[in-house]
Amino acid sequence: MLNDVGLEGLTLRAIAKELNVQAPALYWHFKNKQALLDEMATVMFRRMTAAGSGVAGEAGIEAGEGIGYEPSGTWQEWLTQGNRQLRATLLRYRDGAKVFSGTRFTGTDHGAGLEANLRFLIDAGFTADQAAWASSTAYMYTLGFVTEEQGMRPYPPQEPPAIDVAERAERLAAYPLAAAAGGQLFAAYDERFEEGLRLIVSGIEARYGVR
What we know:
single chain
């Protein structure tokens, strides 16, 4: 249903209608929509971990996004690959990044992965605080990027883009730098994400001096 109607259309009433039950019946399982979103995010997370990904991102320690596999390689490689997988996972769902935003995982099965990921960073030379800050910064970059990406790219992808880059350039012809930037601001999302991730990792290196 999320892919069909988007987050705004995903109401408890709509779900009840789809299930052919009365809306109050759902409140035995979810007291409100936020509880439903928490469980949806948890299921998305579990599917991602089952695929063997790894990301240390953290929207906040209570909503730990430590992904459940044993970290390996350099911390730069691990952080980069994990956030690539996070983006790929969020893009599989319409408004996937919005579902993740502000949710709290149900259960504690994410704890082991989070513990291993933070330990991996500490063993690489980070302090405990730096490990949390570094991983959460990369995670929030990915979440914010995909939120904007999904806001500008229609679902399903076959639909026309929200911004016509050529038409925008014509409207902003009096501002050549702004007009030329459209190709990077509203297209080339894969390239933009990778460049931004490189900036994040390089910034972490420079800030904390961990090579």
